[in-house]
Amino acid sequence: MSKTSIVDHEAAHFGSMAGDWWDPNGASAMLHKLNPVRLSYVRDMVDQHWSGDECGFRPLEGKSALDVGCGAGLLAEPLARLGATVTAIDAAPELIAAARAHAEGAGLSIDYRAMGVEDLGGQYDLVTSMEVIEHVADPQAFVTSLAARLAPGGLLILSTPNRTAWSKLLTITLAEGFGRIPKGTHDFEKFIDPDQMRGLLANAGLEVIDVEGIAVSPMKGLHLSEDTRLNYLIAARRLS
Which of 55, 86, 172, 203, by CA, is between 20 and 30 Å from 164? Predict the structure, then answer.
Protein backbone atom coordinates (compact mmCIF):
# COMPACT_ATOMS: atom_id res chain seq x y z
CA MET A 1 0.00 0.00 0.00
CA SER A 2 1.36 3.41 -0.95
CA LYS A 3 1.75 6.26 1.48
CA THR A 4 -1.62 7.94 1.62
CA SER A 5 -2.41 11.52 0.61
CA ILE A 6 -5.35 11.49 3.01
CA VAL A 7 -5.30 13.80 6.02
CA ASP A 8 -7.64 12.26 8.58
CA HIS A 9 -9.02 15.47 10.04
CA GLU A 10 -9.68 16.83 6.54
CA ALA A 11 -11.64 13.68 5.62
CA ALA A 12 -13.59 13.91 8.87
CA HIS A 13 -14.37 17.60 8.26
CA PHE A 14 -15.86 16.96 4.82
CA GLY A 15 -17.50 13.72 5.89
CA SER A 16 -19.45 15.67 8.51
CA MET A 17 -21.05 17.64 5.66
CA ALA A 18 -22.40 14.55 3.85
CA GLY A 19 -25.96 14.91 5.13
CA ASP A 20 -26.75 18.05 3.15
CA TRP A 21 -24.11 17.90 0.40
CA TRP A 22 -26.80 17.96 -2.30
CA ASP A 23 -28.72 20.84 -0.68
CA PRO A 24 -27.90 23.96 -2.76
CA ASN A 25 -28.52 26.04 0.34
CA GLY A 26 -26.63 23.80 2.76
CA ALA A 27 -23.04 23.63 3.95
CA SER A 28 -21.85 22.92 0.39
CA ALA A 29 -23.78 25.82 -1.17
CA MET A 30 -20.58 27.39 -2.51
CA LEU A 31 -19.69 24.16 -4.33
CA HIS A 32 -23.10 24.21 -6.00
CA LYS A 33 -22.29 27.68 -7.30
CA LEU A 34 -18.80 26.66 -8.34
CA ASN A 35 -19.72 23.38 -10.04
CA PRO A 36 -21.34 24.79 -13.22
CA VAL A 37 -18.26 26.97 -13.78
CA ARG A 38 -15.80 24.14 -13.51
CA LEU A 39 -18.07 21.82 -15.52
CA SER A 40 -18.12 24.39 -18.33
CA TYR A 41 -14.33 24.38 -18.31
CA VAL A 42 -14.18 20.59 -18.33
CA ARG A 43 -16.53 20.45 -21.29
CA ASP A 44 -14.47 23.00 -23.22
CA MET A 45 -11.18 21.19 -22.52
CA VAL A 46 -12.71 17.82 -23.45
CA ASP A 47 -13.96 19.20 -26.78
CA GLN A 48 -10.57 20.74 -27.53
CA HIS A 49 -8.49 17.77 -26.42
CA TRP A 50 -10.42 15.17 -28.39
CA SER A 51 -11.58 17.51 -31.20
CA GLY A 52 -15.17 16.75 -30.33
CA ASP A 53 -18.47 18.23 -31.45
CA GLU A 54 -19.06 21.12 -29.09
CA CYS A 55 -22.80 20.75 -29.67
CA GLY A 56 -22.87 17.02 -28.87
CA PHE A 57 -24.61 15.80 -25.74
CA ARG A 58 -22.20 12.96 -24.87
CA PRO A 59 -18.64 14.04 -25.68
CA LEU A 60 -17.20 11.46 -23.28
CA GLU A 61 -18.98 8.48 -24.85
CA GLY A 62 -16.62 5.51 -24.87
CA LYS A 63 -14.15 7.18 -22.48
CA SER A 64 -13.34 6.49 -18.85
CA ALA A 65 -13.21 9.21 -16.21
CA LEU A 66 -11.81 9.30 -12.68
CA ASP A 67 -12.91 12.00 -10.23
CA VAL A 68 -10.58 12.17 -7.22
CA GLY A 69 -11.98 13.77 -4.08
CA CYS A 70 -15.47 13.45 -5.52
CA GLY A 71 -17.43 14.42 -2.43
CA ALA A 72 -21.00 13.25 -2.87
CA GLY A 73 -20.80 13.38 -6.67
CA LEU A 74 -21.43 16.95 -7.81
CA LEU A 75 -19.02 16.55 -10.73
CA ALA A 76 -19.10 12.77 -11.13
CA GLU A 77 -22.79 12.76 -12.03
CA PRO A 78 -22.47 15.30 -14.88
CA LEU A 79 -19.44 13.39 -16.20
CA ALA A 80 -21.60 10.26 -16.37
CA ARG A 81 -24.33 12.19 -18.17
CA LEU A 82 -21.71 13.35 -20.67
CA GLY A 83 -21.18 9.69 -21.55
CA ALA A 84 -18.15 8.69 -19.48
CA THR A 85 -17.74 5.46 -17.57
CA VAL A 86 -17.04 7.09 -14.21
CA THR A 87 -15.03 5.94 -11.22
CA ALA A 88 -15.13 8.41 -8.32
CA ILE A 89 -13.19 8.20 -5.06
CA ASP A 90 -13.14 10.13 -1.81
CA ALA A 91 -11.42 9.79 1.56
CA ALA A 92 -14.69 10.17 3.50
CA PRO A 93 -16.90 7.04 3.60
CA GLU A 94 -19.86 9.21 4.59
CA LEU A 95 -19.58 11.14 1.33
CA ILE A 96 -19.29 7.96 -0.74
CA ALA A 97 -22.46 6.61 0.91
CA ALA A 98 -24.29 9.86 0.09
CA ALA A 99 -22.93 9.78 -3.48
CA ARG A 100 -24.10 6.22 -4.07
CA ALA A 101 -27.57 6.97 -2.75
CA HIS A 102 -27.93 10.10 -4.89
CA ALA A 103 -26.67 8.39 -8.06
CA GLU A 104 -29.07 5.49 -7.52
CA GLY A 105 -31.95 7.94 -7.17
CA ALA A 106 -30.86 9.63 -10.41
CA GLY A 107 -30.56 6.33 -12.28
CA LEU A 108 -26.81 6.75 -12.83
CA SER A 109 -24.21 3.98 -12.72
CA ILE A 110 -21.04 5.34 -11.08
CA ASP A 111 -18.31 3.27 -9.43
CA TYR A 112 -17.88 5.05 -6.09
CA ARG A 113 -15.09 3.98 -3.76
CA ALA A 114 -13.91 5.24 -0.35
CA MET A 115 -10.13 5.29 -0.79
CA GLY A 116 -7.08 7.37 -1.66
CA VAL A 117 -5.81 7.66 -5.21
CA GLU A 118 -2.52 5.99 -4.28
CA ASP A 119 -4.32 2.68 -3.74
CA LEU A 120 -6.30 2.75 -6.97
CA GLY A 121 -5.23 0.82 -10.05
CA GLY A 122 -6.00 1.28 -13.72
CA GLN A 123 -5.78 4.25 -16.05
CA TYR A 124 -8.42 6.69 -17.22
CA ASP A 125 -8.90 8.94 -20.22
CA LEU A 126 -10.01 11.88 -18.07
CA VAL A 127 -8.82 12.52 -14.51
CA THR A 128 -10.34 15.36 -12.51
CA SER A 129 -9.65 16.59 -8.99
CA MET A 130 -11.47 19.76 -7.97
CA GLU A 131 -10.68 21.73 -4.81
CA VAL A 132 -8.75 18.76 -3.39
CA ILE A 133 -5.00 19.33 -3.65
CA GLU A 134 -5.08 22.04 -0.96
CA HIS A 135 -6.31 19.38 1.49
CA VAL A 136 -3.79 16.57 0.92
CA ALA A 137 -0.73 15.57 2.93
CA ASP A 138 1.85 15.84 0.11
CA PRO A 139 0.85 17.78 -3.03
CA GLN A 140 3.71 16.45 -5.16
CA ALA A 141 3.03 12.82 -4.25
CA PHE A 142 -0.68 13.43 -4.89
CA VAL A 143 -0.09 14.89 -8.37
CA THR A 144 2.30 12.06 -9.18
CA SER A 145 -0.43 9.58 -8.22
CA LEU A 146 -2.94 11.42 -10.42
CA ALA A 147 -0.49 11.27 -13.32
CA ALA A 148 -0.07 7.53 -12.82
CA ARG A 149 -3.81 7.08 -13.30
CA LEU A 150 -3.81 9.04 -16.58
CA ALA A 151 -4.03 6.90 -19.72
CA PRO A 152 -1.82 7.67 -22.74
CA GLY A 153 -3.42 10.56 -24.63
CA GLY A 154 -5.51 11.41 -21.57
CA LEU A 155 -6.47 14.74 -20.00
CA LEU A 156 -5.99 15.87 -16.39
CA ILE A 157 -7.92 18.82 -14.93
CA LEU A 158 -7.43 20.32 -11.47
CA SER A 159 -8.89 23.31 -9.66
CA THR A 160 -7.71 25.00 -6.48
CA PRO A 161 -7.62 28.40 -4.73
CA ASN A 162 -4.67 30.59 -5.64
CA ARG A 163 -2.18 31.61 -2.96
CA THR A 164 -2.94 35.34 -2.95
CA ALA A 165 -4.13 37.92 -0.46
CA TRP A 166 -7.33 38.26 -2.53
CA SER A 167 -8.05 34.55 -2.28
CA LYS A 168 -7.37 34.54 1.47
CA LEU A 169 -9.69 37.51 1.97
CA LEU A 170 -12.61 36.09 -0.01
CA THR A 171 -12.23 32.40 0.79
CA ILE A 172 -11.24 32.45 4.46
CA THR A 173 -11.80 35.88 5.99
CA LEU A 174 -15.17 36.54 4.35
CA ALA A 175 -16.63 33.22 3.15
CA GLU A 176 -15.64 31.24 6.24
CA GLY A 177 -15.97 34.22 8.56
CA PHE A 178 -19.59 34.83 7.56
CA GLY A 179 -20.55 31.17 7.35
CA ARG A 180 -20.77 30.84 3.57
CA ILE A 181 -18.21 28.04 3.85
CA PRO A 182 -17.85 25.97 7.06
CA LYS A 183 -15.09 27.34 9.29
CA GLY A 184 -11.86 25.41 9.16
CA THR A 185 -12.34 24.27 5.57
CA HIS A 186 -9.21 26.00 4.28
CA ASP A 187 -5.64 26.52 5.42
CA PHE A 188 -4.02 29.37 3.51
CA GLU A 189 -0.56 27.88 4.05
CA LYS A 190 -1.62 24.94 1.83
CA PHE A 191 -2.83 27.09 -1.08
CA ILE A 192 -0.85 26.62 -4.31
CA ASP A 193 -0.21 29.27 -6.95
CA PRO A 194 -0.22 28.47 -10.69
CA ASP A 195 3.57 28.56 -11.05
CA GLN A 196 4.00 26.09 -8.20
CA MET A 197 1.28 23.91 -9.73
CA ARG A 198 3.09 23.92 -13.08
CA GLY A 199 6.16 22.66 -11.27
CA LEU A 200 4.26 19.87 -9.53
CA LEU A 201 2.77 18.75 -12.84
CA ALA A 202 6.10 18.93 -14.67
CA ASN A 203 7.75 16.84 -11.96
CA ALA A 204 5.02 14.23 -12.55
CA GLY A 205 5.78 14.14 -16.29
CA LEU A 206 2.85 16.29 -17.37
CA GLU A 207 2.63 19.34 -19.62
CA VAL A 208 0.26 22.20 -18.81
CA ILE A 209 -1.93 23.05 -21.80
CA ASP A 210 -4.26 25.64 -20.26
CA VAL A 211 -4.85 27.75 -17.15
CA GLU A 212 -8.02 29.73 -16.55
CA GLY A 213 -9.19 31.69 -13.54
CA ILE A 214 -12.43 31.57 -11.63
CA ALA A 215 -13.37 35.09 -10.62
CA VAL A 216 -16.39 36.58 -8.86
CA SER A 217 -18.33 39.77 -9.52
CA PRO A 218 -21.71 41.21 -8.43
CA MET A 219 -23.11 40.93 -11.96
CA LYS A 220 -21.74 37.53 -13.02
CA GLY A 221 -21.20 35.75 -9.73
CA LEU A 222 -18.56 33.03 -10.09
CA HIS A 223 -17.35 32.82 -13.69
CA LEU A 224 -14.43 31.80 -15.89
CA SER A 225 -11.93 34.62 -16.32
CA GLU A 226 -8.35 35.49 -17.17
CA ASP A 227 -8.11 36.66 -13.55
CA THR A 228 -6.58 33.78 -11.56
CA ARG A 229 -6.19 35.62 -8.25
CA LEU A 230 -9.11 33.90 -6.50
CA ASN A 231 -9.16 30.39 -7.93
CA TYR A 232 -8.04 28.67 -11.10
CA LEU A 233 -8.43 25.57 -13.25
CA ILE A 234 -5.47 23.92 -14.92
CA ALA A 235 -5.42 21.28 -17.66
CA ALA A 236 -2.47 19.03 -18.46
CA ARG A 237 -1.46 16.08 -20.60
CA ARG A 238 1.39 13.62 -20.46
CA LEU A 239 4.68 14.78 -21.98
CA SER A 240 5.37 12.86 -25.21
Answer: 203
